[in-house]
Amino acid sequence: MRLLHLQMGPQHPATHGVLKVELWLDGEIIEKLRLHIGFMHRCFEKHAENLTYEQIIPFVDRLDYLSAMNCEHIYVMGVEKMLGIEEKIPKRIHYIRVLVAELNRIASHLLAIGAFGIDLGLVTAFLWCFRDREHILNLLEWLSGARMLYSYMGIGGVFFELPLGFEERTKEFLDYFQPKLQELEVLMNENPIWLSRTKGIGILPLPLAIDYGCSGPVLRGSGLRWDVRKVDQYSVYPELDFDIPIGEQGDSWDRFYVRFREIKESVKICYQCLERLQKHYKRSSDFDPRKWMPKRIRPKQQQYYVRGESPRGELGFFFITTGKSDIPFRCKVRSPSFSNLSVLEAIAPGHYFADFVAILGSIDIVLCEVDR
Length: 372
What we know:
Number of strands: 8
Low-confidence stretches: none
Shape: globular
CATH class: Mainly Alpha
Radius of gyration: 21 Å
Structural class: alpha+beta
Mean pLDDT: 93
Number of helices: 15
């Protein structure tokens, strides 16, 4: 049997970045495939060995540039835990961090759903998702001065207090957004073509997802209720009420719909953060969000791993410190997109080539985070 050897990418609109996929096809059926990564190498870990802990923050933004606030939150939280100052940071700062991180999670999932929609020809979903994502980007730009790469969170605090009127404007957006989300759900889940292109496609059994180290919506889509926000209970997440959506059979539709329901849960979290910020942890004229930032950051000698829940799954930072330098000896990143992408070689064979686009889109990767 002669197979067609096909090169897809690295410059291809459906690969969501510079990913090269080498495919062997029997007619239109995928027999096997090989993923080629490394076209977007950021040299993050080598940079981290030559910069102070504060100087690393802008590079953290550029790992998963679609959810920079989430990446910053996990990184600064890790350094704070190494320094032992996490408990000293005021609750207002913790709630501000969670609020902006969950707004960024909504924006990231909207992009994932919109790009997934246009991969399969559902252009209206793409336009609606980007329309509403724009409101969040405007809010975060107002807050930080940057559109996507924020460098907003510092070790021990945040660089700016919330602008006057930010809480009210955010609540206005959430009130506007909820009915729009319902319209989007009707558009996608009552569309028979969309359902036929995603249901039963790219089924990822739970044992296989665990073996590959999958996390985030990819793992939860296969039925495991695992979310680091609940498991590790970091920051103020234990004080907030939210659910962990899961799928049933782990197909492309399950992975999409888990993200969709996570948007609703993030909206709930944002409402709760706003309520606490306005009632219990109010703005005061003498509040300085940078007050708890150490003048010098030099953790004691140790090996330390911290993790958190990014929109793509478990993002982790592993530090090795000497206790004699302001620069980490080693900073290793545990990239959720890397593990999630790896499982494609196991679940794509046996599907039509046209379905490969759906399977890849349902994984929701960011190649800068894969290549680091």
